[in-house]
Amino acid sequence: ATAQAVPAGPVVQDTFLCVKPDGVERGLIGEMIVRFERKGLQLVGMKMITPSRSLIETHYAEHRGKGFFNGICEYMSGHPVVAMVWRGVDAISVCRTVIGATNPTKAAMGTIRGDFGMQTGRNLIHGSDGPESAAREIGLWFRPEEITPASVVPCINKWLYE
Ligand code: UDP
């Protein structure tokens, strides 16, 4: 078999983030957004919606059958959330780093979950964990015309990337 060539240079990614109902209720939407903005990520899609149970069940389909599945569906559906798409080089892992570990009691201080959370079941924000889940989640929550085209490149990028 021929080895697949690894693309050279930085890879721009889109990732799906969602401020969960506890983040909205606690007045932390702006506090969270500012952390991604000042890191250097580009906000390319955003809407507040109250997701249905079926949207959340589809979003968390990989967890169906687990003990916490019903709890996460109750927590996430029927309350307003802020769904967002953020773009940048390595955006998926960069956003996961800004968010912190799943369990807020283990998450590093300086991360969103480390700074503001107390329990896994109330961990404030979701972020896609890889390229496949990012593509799937963006397609589930957004229509293509709700996402800024890749041709809209922020002027600041020349100072973020060499
Ligand atoms: N979750 C939970 N209890 C658990 C594990 C997960 O309530 O024992 C919830 C939690 O809100 C978490 C989400 O299910 O963020 C999805 O879990 P995952 O392991 O994918 O964590 P994440 O990618 O959000 O860090």
From TrEMBL:
It is an enzyme of class 2 (transferase). Keywords: ATP-binding, Kinase, Nucleotide-binding, Transferase. It catalyses: a 2'-deoxyribonucleoside 5'-diphosphate + ATP = a 2'-deoxyribonucleoside 5'-triphosphate + ADP. InterPro entries: NDK-like_dom, NDK-like_dom_sf, Nucleoside_diP_kinase, Nucleoside_diP_kinase_AS. The keyword ATP-binding applies. Pfam families: NDK (PF00334). PANTHER family: NUCLEOSIDE DIPHOSPHATE KINASE. This is Nucleoside diphosphate kinase. It comes from Paratrimastix pyriformis. The lineage of its organism: Eukaryota, Metamonada, Preaxostyla, Paratrimastigidae, Paratrimastix.
